[in-house]
Amino acid sequence: MSGRAVTLGLALLLGAPGVARLVAPGLLPGLDRGSAVVLCVGALLIGAMCLTNRDPMGIDVASPPVARRYLLEGGMAMLAYVLALATSLWLLKRVDPMPLRAAVALLPLLPIVAALLAMARYLRALDELQQRIELVSLAVASGVVSLLYMAGGLLQSARLVEIAARDAMIWVFPLICAAYGVGRGAIARRYE
């Protein structure tokens, strides 16, 4: 299975609940419209990685056992994330005690930590050139997203736009992931 196929599968997995909620609101009553839009945009960003990158998951550069382990660990973590996010959004509408609400709200972080650990294990198993490509891709992604957030903050300070903190904060990690995926394709081409 290719990295592009796996990435498209993740995009579909992420986008399916969002599309279902937008098309048939009664199908997923616990998922609000804003969250459905976030899921759809996330799926579109992952899809953009597939269009701009020959190997969006970066698995073609690793040995087959390393690639298989990464696909399994990363795929399971992303599946767990989608389930944890949907569960968290559903439970937040039904839970009142503050400590329990905090735990439920933070539930989707657990699979993200698992995904980051899988990525770290994967990166350690790559050769030095590929590690360099990955590091530069992450640096560029962090810089791009930081500039976007700085621009948004400056425009908000000038009262030209109004961005709710809740909306802005939820997008940091997905934007870094998308910028990394898109940028990685361009950076990897420099070394071909």
From TrEMBL:
**Which intervals of the chain form a coiled coil?**
112-139
State which residue ranges cross the membrane. 31-51, 71-92, 104-123, 135-156, 168-187
Q: Which domain of life is it from?
A: Bacteria
Q: Which UniProt keywords apply?
A: Coiled coil, Membrane, Transmembrane, Transmembrane helix
UniProt name for this protein: Uncharacterized protein
